[in-house]
Amino acid sequence: MCGIAGVFNFDKTNINPEITNIIKNSLEHRGPDFSRVDYLNEYVALIHTRLAIIDLDHRSNQPMISNDKRYSIVFNGEIYNYKEIRKELESKGVVFSTDGDTEVLLEAYAIYGSHVLNILRGQFAFVVYDSLEESFFLARDRVGIKPLYFSLNEKNLIFSSEIKAIENSGLVPFTPDLDSYVAYLRHLCIPSNKTGNKNISKVEPGHFLKVSNDGVITKTQYWDPFSIEVNHDMSEKEAISKVEELLIDSVEYRKVSDVEVGLFLSGGLDSSLIGKLMSNDKSSAIKSFNIDYEDHFDGYTGEVNEARFAASNIGIKLIENKIQYDDFKKIIDNYSFYQDDLIGDEVGIPLYFLGESSKNNGIKVVQVGEGADELFYGYEHWLRFLKLNRYLKPITKKDIKSLYLKSHRGNLVSNILLNRTSFAGGALGFNLPEIHNLLNGGLSKEFQLVNYVDNKWNDYFSNKNAKLSKWMTLIDLHIRLPELLLMRMDKLIMQSSIEGRVPFLDHKLIEFVLSIPEEIIFNKTTTKPLLKKVAKKHIPKEIFNRKKQGFRAPVGEWIKRDQDYFYDSIKDFNSSTNMFNNKSIENIITGNDYQKKWYLSNLSNWHMRRSK
Fold first, then answer.
1. To 10 degrees, what angle do helices 468-475 and 452-460 make?
2. Which of 135, 384, 385, 598 is deepest in the core (most CB within 10 A)?
3. Strands (E), 166-325
4. Residue 344 above 90 pLDDT?
5. Looking at residue 295, which CATH number applies to its domain?
6. Residues of the domain holding 344
7. Whole-angstrom distance, CA of residue 387 vs CA of residue 239
8. Phi, psi values for residue 578, rounded to 5°
9. pTM confidence score
């Protein structure tokens, strides 16, 4: 895994080397093994910081130029099927000078152009400069596992793996995007191509961009999970067999590495099944990692005992660590900086320490279980929601915009009855009535992004074959997974130069799972019924039948120890933006919902760090 960046001055003026060095230095936590700035000419620079995983030799350092000298690439990620692609290219006469996946990707692009994206199996963000056309090609993997940000104006294009590298360059000012801030309040992340900085955008999952030498940008979607059709002829036996085959294949691909691969182990079904599949042909024990807390809190008992049980049963080594309040205090001032984009989930805190623990134990690469809950219906609240929808039906065909109720349950019921978006994602911060009451002037027409999910809802359910259960998976694949769960994983563990790999989010597995009929993959009485039938062949039932509690952090307990720190940041933010009405802010500050206090404090710290 790496950090990538580049600068393109459209007016062909010389690039200031101080700027490119600042960008490179901002990304070196992502790639501590080697870093370089290549000036392809006076007005084009490519920047790469390398975390060496495949072909550790210096010959695989980047930026890299193609055999025909036309194309140059910077690449972040892994192409797991690079050996198969290499054989195909060799049959076409391509000669390779490295053993890595970067050169394979570059030479494949030289032959196939944008169509190369259709044959890649992996996680990636890469940028190719075409010296003949003087254009840039920017691509992000299908699911959005790897990030890619850019800023485009009349003077230049600047892109990077992280927002803060672009901001640190001094080329792009910070202008808060209040539209994105409001969307963050709802989703705890920012959907579509927006970020919290109005001057910086992101490449969306499953998309590529082409930027011409005069700054004209074209965007193309090359993968769309919403287009995958259900195979109603599939049997349960076929589904179980194929999911098992694809998952084994996916885990095996994610073991491709020239360094040791570890595991984040909670002790639940997802990570334990991955661990078992990883260890099936290993002569030495895989290192796995678990984080617990000194402070236990209501609703969370910790997972270390379950992790110990799983590790002993599947034959892997467990390395445990505990977070104390003092550990939290050490990172809190920099946490919004570490998370880079606006991510409201506090689970980034333990992920940061898991990354630190991995690094301290000589591990550069870990497999993780993200995505299994969304694909296989692993959340109890999903089951409750679908059950409620069996009893409640819309009383109108028209989407009625009035009559909003503030309470979570009341709002949910009114949304179902009045034919509005009743499931906007698996993790929500504030509902629309709460946001309306929180904002000065309410939810006016200037805030469009907050309704992005509602427009997707209307598009999806205009199709007669639409299923609510499939929508839940699809919308989380579209918003929550790429812009919240996967970004917290990437940004927080990459602070320790650790690469995360997600076998449940292999695109071939996703495509098959989305084709499984509802009656096979979903059961109203239990979570993950299909995945459990796969898992019982590999791990004990005590593991896959344990009650799920989710990975959390005791932010409420931590806030209580230093309330002024959190509350002052919210007040400072509001003084700066005048975004919220003071009465609503005071009600949250004096209330008992510490999650909402965290969401607001996180937004406030993110903004204030950049506006100084």
1. 140
2. 598
3. 201-202, 207-211, 217-221, 261-264, 287-293, 317-323
4. yes
5. 3.40.50.620
6. 237-376+475-513+529-544
7. 24
8. 55, 35
9. 0.96
